[in-house]
Known about the structure:
The complex is a heterodimer. By secondary structure, chain A is α+β, with helices and mostly antiparallel strands. Chain A has 4 helices and 10 strands, in the order βββαβββββααββα. Helix content of chain A is about 20%, strand content about 35%. The longest helix of chain A is centred in the last third of the chain and has 9 residues, at about 120-125. Chain A is globular. Chain B has 9 helices and 19 strands. In chain B, the strands form 4 sheets. A 6-stranded mixed sheet of chain B has the order 10-11-12-9-3-13. A 6-stranded antiparallel beta barrel of chain B has the order 14-17-16-15-18-19. In chain B, strands 5-6-7-4-8 form a 5-stranded antiparallel sheet, covered by helices on one side. In chain B, a hairpin with a 2-residue loop joins strand 6 (about 100-110) and strand 7 (about 115-120).
Amino acid sequence: MAYRVPEELYYTKDHEWALVDENIVTVGVTDYAQDTLGEIVYVELPEEGQKVTQNESFGVVESVKSVNDLLAPVSGTVIEVNTSLSENPGTINDDAWNEGWLIRIEMDTEKELASLIRAPEYKKLIQD
Amino acid sequence: MASEVNAILKTALNETHRKLGGKMVDFAGWDMPVEYSGLRLEHIATRTHVGLFDVSHMGEVFIEGSHAMPFLQGLLTNDVSKCEIFQAQYNMMLNEKGGVIDDLIVYRLEEKKFLLVVNASNKNKDFELMQKVAKDFLTKGSLNSSHLILEDQSSAWSQLAVQGPKALPLMAKIFPECTEIKKFRFKILKWQNLDWLVARTGYTGEDGFEVYGPNGSVESLWQEITTLGVGFGLLPCGLGARNTLRIEAGLPLYGNEINDSQLPLNIGMNWALKTTKKEAFMGQQPLATALENLTEENAKKLVGLISLEKAIPRDGYRVLSFDKTQIGLVTSGTYSPSLNRPIAMALVDTSYTNETCLIEVRKNFVEAKIVNLPFVKKK
């Protein structure tokens, strides 16, 4: 199965995506991640104002099958949380790239973006 | 080459699963479908209509000979002499400490011929041990290999499970005599001039059948069931639904409710532990001692937990009283498609009599209702 991997995004090897708009980073999980997890039934997200650290867990996504940590693509402060997911976690399955976004982070330093991967490398990762 | 030794195993239906769009995962070294159309749809289809599962990864060991019965009595916990021809019986195999090596179903094919169906993940370990025990058994009794024959035929046999309220009318179209098979009984029935072992057993809590047959013909049986199944609301189901169905039915799974380091006490299966049968079985002594020493204070009970919040309790999570004293551990947890709530099975102190408790989910404590198993009863 071929998964869509938008060119403009940054990716973690743990299957989070990051959309960078100046110093604001919107974070979600990839289409590959939601499909592998199966039906998502619960999401645990941080509160606004909470600090997150690159490569560390900022929350949890649970499907019927498993529980998985969500890793922050960059360090910074959470400025917005997609609270609609607490009632409708299945939005992540339906629209992982848009409506299924998780949090927005005000990032501490752009330097951390260098350790994220881009679409071609991510595509290769999920093909293996 | 290690890569050849560890090559992933495939059932005879592997191509069929892929064509159906099955999402394939590595399960105990087997390339198996975890879901096709979606775990929830498959689960609900099995509860309301009928589900078809490929469970050919399970192991099939045949045991035959004049001394098959005394051998099995010494190997297994249940009283195999009570199992009649064409009857199936739940059993466990214990190690010397009383921990569980595996749980399995014995099918008595003839007076002195048995089929043992074991877990895929334990098959090699089981068969090696059975061979070792058989060798000692023969030596001790001054017998030879003609008295007891063990054969691992796992790679030649396939198994399909057809489960749900519509399993009977559907299967009657293929095997008309299957309507006469009672629960935990089986018959050898013909289809396309071949013998199939058709058993009224299952692992979903629903009525249904498990059908054993040769690899070379299972594809045509699968196609026949799915073609006829259209009129019965059948869906092919993956291992994901198999797990949520068995949790709702309160059935133990090796690795979760039972394992090799714990005595198999209090999981609702004590009826299969016949410590008073004539022949001593492996692991009987520690088990008998533990059963004798069981008191109101130290006994545990396998119960159901229904979480009142959204996070799912997973195996290994602690169960606590409201003053945060540990009273048990979660053994299996999932999201229940039937109840639309997170549920779990847990081994909890019987001395705890409250109707609610706490479960430690990561750094939070969530409240849960304690219920008797199963969560879902057959309609």
